[in-house]
Amino acid sequence: MIPPNPPPEARSDILRQWAGTPVTALVSLVSAAVAISVTWALVDWAVISAVSPTRPIEECAGASGACWRFYLEKSRFMLFGTYPYAEHWRPALVSLLLLALSALVGLRITGRLRWLRPRMLLALWAGVIPMAFVLMGGGWTGLLAVDMSRWNGMPVLLILSVIAIALAFPLGVALAVLRHQTRRPVLRRAALVYIEGMRGIPMVTVLFVGVFVLPLTLPPDTRISPVMATLIALVFFHASYFAEDVRGGLQSLPVSQQEAAFSLGLSRGKTMRLVLLPQALSRSLPALVNSVIGAYKDTSLVVVLGIHDLTSTARMAFSEPGWGQFALEAYAFVGAWFLLSCAFLSWVGRELHRNQGARRR
Amino acid sequence: MRPAQLCLTALSSILAVTTVPALAGPVMDDIKANDSLICLVSPTAPGFSVPDSTGVFQGFNADFCRMAAAAVLGDADKADIRGVGFSDSMKTIVAGEAHMGSRSITRTGTRDADEGMAFVVTTFFDGQGFMVPNSLGVSSAAELDGASVCAEDGSTTLLNIADWFGAQGMTYRVENIADKTARLEAFFSGKCDVYASDVTALTADRQLSENPADYVILPEVISNEPLTLVARPDQAFEAALFWGFQVMLNADSHGITSANIDEVMADLDNQPPAVQRMFGADSATTDMAAKLGLVDDWAYQIVKQVGSYGEVFDRHLGVDTPFGLDRAETPNAHAANGGLMYPYPIR
Lengths: 361, 347
Known about the structure:
Chain A is mainly α and 361 residues long. Chain A is 69% helix and 0% strand. Chain B has two domains: 236 residues, Periplasmic binding protein-like II (D-Maltodextrin-Binding Protein, domain 2), CATH 3.40.190.10; 96 residues, Periplasmic binding protein-like II (D-Maltodextrin-Binding Protein, domain 2, 3-Layer(aba) Sandwich), CATH 3.40.190.10. Helices cover 41% and strands 18% of the residues of chain B. Chain B contains 14 helices and twelve strands. Chain B starts with a helix and ends in a 31-residue tail after the last helix.
């Protein structure tokens, strides 16, 4: 007979947890006060002192709170910048596709959506990435051609983060494998020099090289747009960080895995592909997510190259004469976006840690 | 190329051969073939070029892009105005990927000597000045000995400062900050005593502070900055830009604006001869249109769709705007009022 479950443990005493000793009481009090005042300031700004979007913009002048009319007026500009107004559905669609795909990957690696095979994800990426460029660029079957200098705001932020990361990942894995293997010492050294060299250079330098030096290496009558040059530079930069994350995973595998695979008669290639890499990748996921968060946040640095990502379009939104007083609203918009997207990324990171902990137990 | 497209191209090339005179150059042909004029402006220059809520660039400089499109294509909205950084915009024009630039480029000897870029006509006479906070208690640049100056790296600004401070026998210290927003922030937060730039840029930048009244622009102007339109070299296109601008100045002389141009046209016979020569059906401008490959009523289209020079100035920079520039007090006043804006005869 199965013995009955013991009664659950008594609930912990909240009062004792929060104010058991004078020190905890003080800390709790201070943090509660800070939390309340911050929340209050936020509510006051966004709701109580705010001017509702139905009021005319003139009323915002004296208000101490948010001017919601500003968002009504400028949201589309902050999201899509100088992209032709009538064609905004294209950057919107591209942004949604890239966001949805990123969310799918995030959910999948935290162990949800099991039906989604990695192969399907790969096919989706292979389809969506070229589609993003074709749709943004236009110039076919009656779609208005749009120059890359008009790719602004959200889509360019996502192209330079999501697509750069997606393209850097396979390159990073390849570099990690090259650096890990011992059969081809020349390639091993080359990968080592590349990875260490890239990681030793600040990202801004890589970006400047991409935008100012890369065009010099092209034939004289070709010009590469800053967005493309930056994308290429970012792919090569991020790849070196991903390579180190994956190499960490490869090195953490016990050597018996490789020996076992060999004893089953698997070739070196198959051993890497079927036995070592899958385990290494799942082990290096937390480190990879960490690198992805860093890469994503660094994307805003492209402003120095004259590329207008979300931060830059927000700045342009309040540069229009007469709108200068809405800098706070504009930056709050950007801040809210980065808060949300980074919150999702770090949630993925936390889930991964928890899953791995669970697996080990 | 699909057959239908091929037919269309062939048809349009035949038409072009019969209607466009031989003088029209490659840039002019390119603009007409694409039915769009690519014009580069600065991405964020309040008052000069900044996108509105629908992402279309508005401002003093952007209006000269519209002027060109109105003259060549008959429709100011066919100007494809793109915001591009300073050095990149020069490269883009030289590489032939844009037709013109209207972005406060100072016309200097060495720049003009470069191939691939032609300076056409000065739309704005500017000069470099200094902005200081009221709290500094300075009323003349001669009192700035030992000051720290925030200025843009690599621009003519730094060279002018070096010249001027050197000539006055004063010392100074430069805070080099490449990014404009960061540089302004450094100035507003007191990291440097003086902010140096073109006077009009100072007027615009002062608006970006929390309290513009806390800052004063010193009276000294230490350099000449003729801000000039640039074009890809093409004789016909350069002439179109130059004379398009002259139409705006001449309209100014006669008090003609986009608001009253239609009344003027309705009553053309009673107008002064100079106005008749500008807007008449068989006049100096129609003659020019045939030779340069412009739309027949290009002078009317410019004034109707863009306006006169004074109108454009007042709309974007004038006393009723946040910048509050009084045109009569700048070198950009009409020549009749002692300024440098001297309308050339259209005849």
